[in-house]
Amino acid sequence: MASRGWTPAGPVHTTVDREFISSKELRRLLRQRVYAEIDPAGMLEELEFNPTKVREDLVVLVDRIVAEEGYLLADGMRREMQAYILDEMLGLGPIDPLLKDPTIEEVMVNKVDEVWVARRIHGAVQLERTDVTFDDEEHVLHIIDRILGPIGRRIDEATPLVNARLQDGSRVNIIIPPLALDGPTITIRKFPEEFLTMEDLIHRFYSLTPQMAQFLQVCVQGRLNIIVSGGTGSGKTTLLNALSGYIDDGERMLTVEDTAELQLHKYKPHVVRLESRMANVEGKGAVTIRDLVVNALRMRPDRIIVGECRSEETVDMLQAMNTGHDGSLTTVHANSPNEAIFRLENMFLMSGLEVPVIAIRQQIAMAIQLVVQVRRLPDGSRRVTRITELVGMDSGRVKSQDLYRYRDGSFEYTGARLQATPRLRAVLKALPPLPVFEDGHSSRDES
Fold first, then answer.
1. What is the DSSP string of 117-142?
2. pTM to 2 decimals?
3. Fold classification of 198-445 (topology level)
């Protein structure tokens, strides 16, 4: 059929008419026949040069298989089967429409017949079960092959889980039996179609107030080291992207991530992106976040931005912050600023270095000036719930003070003064007239 021979051509041999077949059974039959007859590698090659011809050939192939199997289909059913195979071969099967839906942020295949999405509605994200199903586990595995094939990754019993980034930037996690007890599981975090600025977070999603944003702008431009802390899906990366927008265009930024999600390169002129790599099937070739952070220090960075500190790379990140790389940014998975500090201690200890806990806490207190806590609320909205300053040590523990917080549905300034104000003045000279930079102010509502 196709000029590059990715699928066999041949005459239509019609058999006797068969009895009724259900739509599900017909889909399974078509899928099996199509996969058996085509050359996937050849099809992908042809797709680059002539996508229209590939689509036309697939439609003809579907019609030929239906005729050979002896089924008479109404026009509506025939078009449905053609669309099914096109989605199956050129898209991602049943979940393809979900991935194209701009209101959906995440697609989660839990079982063959259980597919959930995280949908954004009026600024809030809610989990929703869909009516999308797969035909069987083999069907799910075929879609997994479609996901991993173009990016050169594989999954099997020897390597039953994969974390990867799709060609459009979306992040995918796949885990199969024996680790996944209910069958192959797919989680796709979609790549955002639009970059959310701080203005969007203020005026569209009400994640923080203009005064809080102005304060954070000064802290970023004044080169304070900042950690964004939050739980899963709380918006840590989105806020980190927005904060990075305040960095001067003349600075050289290095981003270090497990799976590239930061979008600084789209609006900043001098960004170098680094991404970790898992070991190959022989267990070799792994490059960790810690390896990349160490390497980043040799690349003359003005700013180091780590997508998330999860393990022993915390040691190198803290040392970078303490040795002249001011203004670094990262995220930590934690539910409060105090928990974020505790997580940093634990991750430091994961490095295997025999360092007293008191020394680790001193490093944290000296390296980090601000913790910005984000949270996804029960209604699905995301808020900056606390902006906390680390202010040294007290009785062997890291001391902190809340500057801003979200409480009882409103944002408020606590009345505390930023103790790092002299450090900001040394960099910026002049500061905006915010109460957090002055003495003698009491708590007030900003909302």
1. EEEEETTEEEEEE-S---SSHHHHHH
2. 0.79
3. Rossmann fold (3.40.50)
